[in-house]
TrEMBL record:
Database matches in Pfam families: SBP_bac_8
Domain of life: Bacteria
Signal peptide bounds: 1-26
Family: Belongs to the bacterial solute-binding protein 1 family.
One GO biological process term: maltose transport
Recorded GO CC terms: ATP-binding cassette (ABC) transporter complex, substrate-binding subunit-containing
Phosphoprotein recorded as keyword: no
Listed name of the protein: Arabinogalactan oligomer/maltooligosaccharide transport system substrate-binding protein
GO molecular function: maltose binding
Length: 447
C-alpha cells in the first residue's frame, strides 16, 4: 500500500474512533502499528513542512511512533559496532524509558541464531546485517519491512544504500554505513594529475616501478572479483540482467566484459607478479612502508592509513580510455527489525533513532563508519577528512553488490578466471568457461 495513502487512512481511522463508537476501521491496520500510524498521520502535515533530513526533524518524527507498554529491546551487532551502540542506547533509554541490551554477535552468527533463537523468543529485536544477507533473512522470515519510516528513509539516504536494503520493491533496512573501495595514494610520491586517468596511472607506474626493490606504482587484489568489478562496469559489462536481479541473464562474457578484462590483462605490464602473490596483506604492507604509491583498497582502511609517516589521499577511480567512469561495488550495513520481536514499534523507533544525523555522526567519530545518509559530507568532521571525502565521491559511482542467492555462484568461477586471464589466457574463452560454471551452479540451487 502506498505510504501516503496508508497515513491518510490511519488519520481517517483515528477520526472515526474519536467521533463514533465504531471500531471496525482499526482492524484494517497492521497489528504492529495500530494507533501509531494514526498518531503520525495527525501530525504529518507539520512534519512534512519542516523535514529536511536533519536530526531535529527526525526526532520530531520519532515522537509520533508509540512504543509498546513495557517494551525492552535486545540489539545484536559485531564487535566493530557495539562500542557506539553501548553509548547511544543510554540516550535512547533515557529519552524513551526503554531498556536496551547490546549483545555482540557477528553477522554470520546472527543469521544462524535467528533460525533457533527467533522461534524460541530469545533473538534480538534489532539486527545489524550486511545487505548481501538480506535475501536469506527475508527467505527465513527474520525481518520486518521498514514501513513506518519508509518515506523518510527513501528521501534521506543515498539511493545506492536504499536500493541495497530493498527487495522486490519492499524496503526492509535502516541504512547505517556504506563501504566501497577507491584509490589511496602516497602524497609524497603521487600528484592528483597522476591519477587523472588509467593511462596516467600506467605512465606513472612505468617510471616508478622497481620490482627488484619491491617498489610498485599501482597494485590491487588481482584474483578477487569484488575489486576487479570496475573493469566490467567500466566497459558496459554486467553480472546479471535487469539491474542484477535476473540470474537467467549473465553478462560476464558479453562484448563489454571481454573488452574490460582485456584491459585488466594489459595492466600486468606495470604489475609483473602472479595474481596469487598480490595479496591484501602484501599490498597493505608495501603501502604502509612507502613502497607502493597507488593502492586500490577499501574505505575500511582509512583508519589504518591515517597515521603513517606520510600523508595519504583518496580519490575515486578515474575514467577508462573509452571515457567511461567505472562503478565499484558498494556494501551497505543496516539495522533491521526482527520479525520475532515482541516490541516491533519500539524496535522501529530505535532503528530510526540510531540512524538520525546526530547518531550517525557520532558513530562516524567513534568507529569511522561512513554514513549512508545524504548531506553528511558537509559535516566538518567528514568534510575535513580528505580520505573520507574521496570515499563519498566514489559512492556516487558505486552500485550495491548483488544480493540474490545466485551471486554466490559467481565468486569462485570469477576468481579462477581472473588468475587465468592475468596469466595471459584467452579472455573470451576463459570468461565463457566461467559463465558456464556459474550456470551449472545456479541450476544446482534450483534442485
Amino acid at each position: 500500500m502506498n505510504m501516503k495513502f496508508r497515513k491518510m487512512l490511519s488519520l481517517l481511522c483515528v477520526m472515526v474512533l474519536l467521533f463514533t463508537t465504531t471500531v471496525a476501521c482499526s482492524s484494517n491496520n497492521n497489528s504492529t502499528s495500530n494507533g501509531a500510524n494514526g498518531a503520525k498521520a495527525e501530525q504529518q502535515g507539520a512534519a512534512n513542512n519542516t523535514n529536511n533530513g536533519t536530526g531535529t526533524d527526525a526526532a520530531a518524527e520519532e515522537e509520533q511512533l508509540t512504543p509498546e507498554s513495557g517494551a525492552k529491546l535486545i540489539v545484536w551487532d559485531g564487535n566493530d559496532g557495539t562500542p557506539f551502540l553501548k553509548e547511544i542506547v543510554k540516550e535512547f533509554s533515557e529519552k524513551y524509558n526503554i531498556p536496551v541490551e547490546v549483545q555482540e554477535q557477528g553477522a554470520p552468527e546472527q543469521m544462524q541464531k535467528m533460525k533457533t533463537d527467533g522461534p524460541a523468543g530469545l533473538a534480538a529485536d534489532v539486527l545489524v546485517l550486511p545487505h548481501d544477507n538480506l535475501s536469506e533473512a527475508i527467505a527465513g522470515g527474520f525481518v520486518l519491512p521498514n514501513d513506518f519510516f519508509e518515506e523518510e528513509t527513501r528521501a534521506e539516504f543515498q539511493e545506492t544504500a536504499v536500493n541495497a536494503v530493498t527487495k522486490d520493491g519492499i524496503l526492509y533496512g535502516y541504512p547505517r554505513n556504506m563501504e566501497t573501495y577507491a584509490l589511496f595514494y602516497n602524497k609524497e610520491l603521487v600528484t592528483e594529475n597522476d591519477l587523472s586517468s588509467w593511462d596516467s596511472i600506467i605512465s606513472f607506474s612505468k617510471k616508478y616501478n622497481d620490482p627488484a626493490k619491491k617498489k610498485y606504482g599501482f597494485m590491487m587484489p588481482l584474483n578477487i572479483f569484488y575489486f576487479a568489478y570496475p573493469f566490467i562496469s567500466g566497459f558496459n559489462g554486467y553480472i546479471f540482467g535487469n539491474d542484477n536481479t535476473n540470474p537467467e541473464d549473465i553478462g560476464l562474457n558479453n562484448e563489454g566484459s571481454v573488452e574490460g578484462m582485456k584491459y585488466f590483462q594489459s595492466m600486468r605490464e606495470i604489475l609483473p607478479m602472479e595474481a596469487a602473490d598480490a595479496t591484501i596483506d602484501v599490498k597493505t604492507g608495501l603501502f604502509q612502508e612507502g613502497k607502493l604509491a597507488i593502492n586500490l583498497d577499501g574505505v575500511w582502511n582509512i583508519g589504518n592509513f591515517s597515521n603513517l609517516s606520510f600523508e595519504v589521499g583518496m580519490v575515486p577511480l578515474p575514467e577508462f580510455p573509452n571515457g567511461q567512469q567505472p562503478d565499484t561495488f558498494a556494501g551497505v550495513k543496516a539495522y533491521y527489525v526482527s520479525a520475532y520481536s515482541k516490541y516491533p514499534n519500539a524496535a522501529k523507533l530505535f532503528a530510526r533513532y540510531v540512524t538520525s544525523q546526530e547518531a550517525l555522526l557520532k558513530n562516524f567519530e567513534m568507529t569511522g563508519f561512513i554514513p549512508a545518509r545524504k548531506g553528511m559530507e558537509n559535516e566538518p568532521a567528514i568534510k575535513n577528512n580528505a580520505m573520507v571525502s574521496g570515499a563519498i565521491k566514489q559512492f556516487e559511482h558505486s552500485i550495491a553488490m548483488p544480493s540474490i542467492f545466485e551471486m554466490q555462484q559467481v565468486w569462485a568461477p570469477m576468481a579462477n578466471a581472473l588468475e587465468l586471464i592475468w596469466k595471459g589466457e584467452d579472455v573470451k574463452k576463459t570468461l565463457d568457461s566461467a559463465v558456464e560454471s556459474m550456470k551449472q551452479g545456479i541450476e544446482t540451487l534450483k534442485k
